[in-house]
Design goal:
2 domains, 15 helices, elongated, 5-stranded mixed β-sheet, abc type-2 transporter like fold, alpha/beta
């Protein structure tokens, strides 16, 4: 082995890398951005869970207790209700994750210790919320013995606290993101490397026709993947589908379109399939880590929550968990439905315009 020839090859590779600005920028930019973003955003502390309260006692002790719960920082009271049924409806619609019920005989229960003096209703479709409920249950009740178990935790939608019930719906989003973005991100770059893009330019095909033609085949693939995950989740892990199946596919279709449009956009930015693959991987971690699938959304800084709201998977996770686990309909989750539709339309429009520039 000649050191001179080896050095020449090394210098050649470094010069080629320097000319490839996109790859060079990703080498330094991706780890820097991800470290700064996730270092601040990922917070395992459970904070500010959306909560509603029913205070049927309305006494000095009940108000003292509710103030103590709010002081923990674990929950943030977003609404008040008059009956537990109203709390259940707010939870089904995804507006709250925890409901606190103070019964009318709260003070009497504190004195007699014969029954739980407080009920905490938990959205069991999110494991983060279950952990928050355990923290609330440890808050001492006013004027009681330290060992008095005065809090009753009622777990809705996942009473057995099975992890698969929480993770399988979210895994639909993870799988669709990791496969569809990658497939379509390499679509145009593959055409360019094979010389087929020049042939497409010579044809009367429009940018919209090219974009939709690239997207539609993968829509079917995405729906097949959804079907496979739903079947396995139901048959193997006994994950329920409490909502309408057509609404599950409706939410999945919007999410598929958003991912495919993102992949097409990345393919217009990349010069090679390798670059397209790198860009696709760069989008995976933010969607998985900031969407609420793995880490508590409520515990993130406000800036990280703004970024999360721009990601398709954040809204899909809320939709799919709401439909499958809580039995909610798309009409019960209009904000996330409209946000996901807007993101899909915006990405499709931008990617089509980028293709027009390439064709021009």
């Amino acid at each position: 082995m000649s050191p001179v020839r080896l050095l020449a090859i090394i210098v050649k590779e470094l010069r080629q890398l320097r000319r490839d600005r996109l790859t060079f920028g990703m080498i330094l930019g991706i780890p820097t951005l991800q470290l700064l973003l996730f270092g601040f955003a990922i917070n395992l502390d459970i904070r500010h869970i959306d909560t509603a309260v029913v205070d049927q006692a309305n006494t000095a002790r009940s108000r003292e207790l509710l103030n103590a719960l709010a002081a923990t920082g674990v929950v943030t009271v977003r609404a008040t209700a008059t009956t537990p049924a109203q709390l259940q409806e707010l939870m089904r619609e995804g507006r709250i994750s925890i409901g606190v019920v103070v019964p009318a005989d709260f003070d009497h229960r504190l004195e007699t210790h014969d029954r739980p003096a407080l009920q905490v209703m938990v959205d069991g479709s999110d494991q983060t919320v279950q952990a928050a409920a355990r923290q609330l249950a440890s808050v001492p009740l006013p004027g009681t013995r330290a060992n008095y178990q005065g809090v009753e935790v009622v777990n809705f939608y996942n009473p057995e606290r099975r992890a698969a019930v929480n993770t399988v719906p979210g895994l639909i989003g993870v799988i669709l993101t990791m496969t569809l973005v990658m497939f379509t991100a390499m679509a145009l770059t593959r055409e360019r490397e094979r010389g087929n893009l020049e042939m497409l330019i010579a044809t009367p095909v429009s940018p919209w026709e090219l974009t939709i033609g690239k997207v539609l085949p993968f829509v079917g693939i995405g729906l097949v993947q959804v079907t496979v995950v739903l079947l396995l989740g139901t048959l193997v892990f006994a994950v329920p589908i409490r909502g309408y199946l057509i609404e599950v596919y409706g939410a999945a279709l919007l999410f598929i379109l958003a991912n495919l449009s993102l992949g097409i956009l990345l393919s217009t930015l990349a010069k090679s399939q390798f670059q397209a693959m790198q860009l696709a991987f760069f989008t995976f971690l933010p969607q998985i880590l900031l969407s609420g699938f793995m880490f508590p959304y409520a515990g993130m800084p406000v800036a990280a929550q703004w970024i999360a709201e721009c990601l398709p998977m954040t809204h899909f996770i809320r939709l799919i968990r709401g439909i499958m686990l809580r039995g909610a309909g798309l009409s019960d989750l209009p904000n996330d439905l409209l946000a996901l539709a807007f993101i899909a339309a915006l990405l499709l429009t931008i990617s089509t315009r980028r293709i027009r520039k390439r064709l021009d």
